[in-house]
Amino acid sequence: MGIASDFVLIVVAGLGGAILARSLGLPLLVGYVAAGVVVGPHTAGPTVAQIDDIELLAEIGVALLLFALGLEVSFRDLRAVRRVALIGGPIQIGLTAFFGAVVARTALSMPTTDAVWFGAMVSLSSTMVVLKTLAADGTTSTLASRVMIGLLVVQDLAVVPMLVILPHVGEVTGAVSRLVQASVVAAAFLLAVVLVGTRLLPALLRRIVRWGSRELFLVAVVAAGVGVGALTYQLGLSFAIGAFVAGLVLSESELSHQALSDVAPLRDVFGLVFFVSVGMLFDPRYVIDHAPSLPR
Questions:
Q1: Residue 210 maps to which CATH number?
Q2: Is the separation of the CB atoms in 224 and 198 below 8 Å?
Q3: 69-121: per-residue pLDDT in tens?
Q4: Structural domain of residue 109, as residue ranges?
Q5: Are the CB atoms for 175 and 168 separated by under 8 Å?
Q6: Distance CA 46, CA 136 (A)
Q7: Is the dihedral of CA 184, 243, 117, 97 positive or negative?
Q8: What are phi and psi of 81, to 5 degrees?
Q9: How far apart are CA 65 and CA 249, in angstroms?
Q10: Cα–Cα distance, 233 to 238 (Å, whole number)
């Protein structure tokens, strides 16, 4: 059955892990990750075979979660926290990256270039984990959650300059020109998505609603989310941030609540696939073998 059998294995394992996690009073995502360790290639027992294909499905899960989040919030919600996000976000990223690099250079004895990469890595949060936790607690609409969402958006956007600059540490002139070019292209595309989407998408969905086809409505909503995400990925931005922008655009429509209720089940299933795929990366044997070399 190929990937179909892998998908079945992941869903069944995720269900078992979720039931166990809920029985222990833990978040569902902990159960999903634990299930991924069990069905991963580094442990005995049933194993997922098509790991690369599952990782692609996991990307869809991230995009659907960000798309659904965009449907829940709005430009008005984010506008209220824009100063905190736009000022505090770069400060947080810069300070965390700096101290992370210092720790990697002094405590872990990493080469300077590797230490800079390490600092950049630890300066970013997992958008998927944070949002899943907020959604599980039902707190996505609070002020504190909106601040966190704003900071996460800034972090996702910061990936673009990081990927442009970090591979060319020391080549300042070339990196700056590439960064400016990438930023202009990304900004122009996102602006076009907002301007076109606020006019075209709601009109298209209203036409579909008049046809009375709930199935076609769901297909159109999902196509909008993953389609914009795919376009942003082609321009060097995150697949997920494009889906988030599509959700934000659609949130201004009167059909946003219906779109969210229809896409939520898909979001949860593919979100399960994402967290199980994260658990599949964990190698217990590697941790055990290298435990003595960890700094104390």
A1: 1.20.1530.20
A2: no
A3: 888 777 676 777 878 888 888 899 889 989 998 988 888 888 888 888 888 88
A4: 3-293
A5: yes
A6: 29
A7: positive
A8: -115, 15
A9: 15
A10: 5
